[in-house]
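Memo to structure team: turn this sequence into structure tokens by end of day. - J.P.
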Amino acid sequence: MLQRELTREQAIQTGEHILDLMEGHILERGYTYFSNGVVFNTRVEDGKLLKSDVQGTQIYHVSLHLDVVQESTCTCPYSRLCKHIAATFFQMYSVFDNPRHYLTRAQQPRLAKYSPPMLAPAFKSGIRNLTQSETSESLHSPLQPESSVNQWWTFFDSWTRNLFAAMESFRASSELLSSYENILGIASKWPENRAQLFAVHATLFHLLKLQEFVQTKRQSYWFHDLSQTAERLLLQLEGILYYLDAQQLFATDLTDLEETKNLVQTWKYMEPTSLYWSYAYQMLWWELLQKPEWTTEEANELNRLIHLPETTDAEKEKYRMLLGHFLVMKKEDQAALDIWLPNERLGLTFYLPYVKSFARNNDWPRFLAWIDRLERLVGEADAQHYRLVTTVWREAMRQLGRGQECGKKLKKFLPGSFQEYASYLYENQQYKDWVDLQLSYRVPFTDIQAWQIKQVEEAAPHLLFPFYLQEINRLIGERSRTSYKEAIKLLKKVRSIYSKVNQEAHWGSYLDQLSTKYNRLRAFQEELRRGNLNL
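Reply from structure team:
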């Protein structure tokens, strides 16, 4: 049916847009969904909307816009182009071509195209997008929309009194998330902004519960799934705060915001067993509690605590880390970074909320100033965060008229930028730097494309000596007749290059040294004689 309504050209064009816009790991998960056969009821509407239903944790409804992929939608909680949209695309693409070939191509290093939606939080606005529960009946909750923050927390404590026992008996992360989603269901029919504030507190409560579980239940380190659960809660907190109307809350719910502020202020006294609570602390002051009198009060208190004689060195360090946030709020960025950057525990994730905020506000000079200080962390970041930051960085450079500088400046993002920087050097025929880069990162000779080697050989053959000599030693080190024969083939190529650059004397010296070095390898010596390698 799709073959009659769509064309192969449409499928290919849509695929090109998706390559530019969709995160690689999302695309791979979409392919898995497609392969598992969970895409159904696929149809075309208006000649440009490909619609489908996808079975996930529930049935999600997808609308893939074939002309403007950015306008595609899905009813799942994910706010950006999601795996269900990717699965729908593969369902269509499979009618016209092999989707596995497309995925292989998508997995190759590529530059993403900047679009503002990539800066949006992962989760959509609305409490119903955070939970499957839409009613409070099963909880027998006494809470009403007008209930206070203190009443919310009293209920949270009561509702979760057996949570730790369940977390110990079953999978801890699943039990905690189940409790979280059920509690969110209480507010699913409340007024939107009130429900969002409730969701903020439910998220904070469960994040603290998770930390308490690790501290009190003999969990001396964060298990992988518990760490992922904390990261998910933080992502949801980011989304809730992003869509929440703080100005409206100050106008209608000031008392509850004051209670929120009083609660958050106590967090600075917590033991710094993990960084998750500090991420939440900073997000709340950045997005929700920005009232100048409040931020000044908290910053002054942190300064006071730092200078108390009885404050330990560890506590001073904690307070200084938190104070850095208020320096950023005063636009004293470099002072904040001077505090944070020496702390090796802080990876790029710690700084992302700030740099994404600068980019959302089109404050490109401030964004670039931060990236200049964070270049090492960008280079060491995981692929997903590296790709996000460098994509926005290119846009910032373009906005400030510096786009032509991007290629050479990729060097500062090594090792993350290796593929992109190597491509830049090669395309600009900076072959010496290209070879040095390959050698510095110990790229195996067999991993380099033959056509690249050939082009460098034609332009500057002497640059390839280190490559060939390194590979020759590796082959000899394998101690097999087959590898010796391959080494001889390369030696003949090296001999030819020495001849081209008029270095015959150096060739003879090198050959003598090689023969002496491996004089005990009888089979290699035999192959060396058979090769007739003298000039």
